[in-house]
Fold each of these.
Amino acid sequence: MSIPLRITLTMAQRLAVMSPADNMLRDPAPLPQAVVPLASWLTDAVTPDQRWAKLLIAQPMAERVELQLGGKRTVSAAAIPGLNPAAARKLAQVIGAEWVWLQSKAGRTDACFSGSRSRFTLGRADVLAAQHGGTLEKTLRNRGFDFAIPQWTNVDRPGWHLSNLGATCHCGRNLVLVDWWHAEAPRRANSHFVACSAHGIVGAVEGAPWRNLVQLRRELDAALAVQGPAARRYSVYVVEVLGLPRSSKRPVYVGMTSKPIPVRLEEHAIEGHPLQGRVFRKAKGGRVGQLLAEETKSLPELRSQLAARTAEAWVAEVLRLRGFDVHGGH
Ligand SMILES: [Zn+2]
């Protein structure tokens, strides 16, 4: 099992932080201590050695470590025993690192952004963003959208990205999420919107389920954008759940796996299997029904566990909004 990662970053922050490394931090140093990365993909003007020298002045107890990331990637970091989260964040700011990993008592690894943004230069941020998309007008035109674009100052900057939200407009067309993948996005109020090809910006995307759907889609896009060429393939699957008491909502189970889907489906039927799923336990009475392959066919290739996990959560939310009784789909 990998360590659960509590995701508190915005999309743009995550892209900046995760790229080019996967975010799965394995085997962190023993507890309790803070782990501050010395490498930065945003401000490479300062080298890890320079950060290390600065950090040692403030924290003579620090130890230099190589963190094992997903795959074979490593990142140079400093481990500091007994440092609390606030102090660790401050330290990251002092040495010009954008972010800091903290190993908490519960054994969770939290990725946090220290917020030291003063080192950004427009040139670099725009270069980074341009890898993900052009200006808003160009991005929309490339996809055949010609609705009126908002009068925001950032629409002429690169990094605009479109994705399928997974929900439909009242007119029946698919809604798209238009998102600005840019290091400055976290500081801006106007960095994303939902649009219909016929109606333009949809203002009525309010309420918790919608916000949740948008957030999940952003997380999925971020995970897809930074997944490596790993050999591992993951699938997200949706199956009917049979045998439950009759209700107005159709019950489905959403899961993700690195195994062939038929193998994974068989596991749901094995009583006491650690991955059986609550709804399939004898006491709950659910049985695995038909695989609903249609529901996942728009997903791209999933090559990291994070991408698969977020895809699973997004698919579950899409189905929930469409009125299914959704089980699984963490
Ligand atoms: Zn519409």
Amino acid sequence: MTATAEPSVTSSTPEAAVALTELIDRFASGPAVLDAALAGMTDAELDRRPAPGEWTAREIVHHLADAEANAFVRLRQLLSRAPGYTVQVWDQDAWAAAPALAYDRPLESSLTLFGALRASSLELLQRLTPSDLELAGSHPEIDQPYSVGLWLRLVSDHPYDHADQIRRTRPGAA
Ligand code: NI
């Protein structure tokens, strides 16, 4: 997805503090948002491909876990002030399509992993200072510093975007 960022989250005004709290709440709610989107879906529904080239709900869940694992590393690299840190990019479509990564397997391990990774990162986010938000590295595909503030905005939105996508895989939704 395309990266956009509002700079306000990286300042230390009262408005920015509210914005930060809201972003952290949004980050924390990701697993529940995903669970709600999946509620009651059968295996057949999880494997329904709404159109050629689009992901199934099952594939989206594995993608969310794998993306969170990448995000988990990025946050820690940023917060550890890794010198000259450049984000490691990964090809999400190649991961979803690689037979060895088995995006057709049961959901449970990826749901557990997504929740656990996010719970761990949440503990770090709850301790952030305003200056931590400005810690930054670079991203080969983003034309601005890849800061903790940008990370938080992008990663907080991620399960919301994909929950919408899961709802669109349901029969009659698209
Ligand atoms: Ni995604």
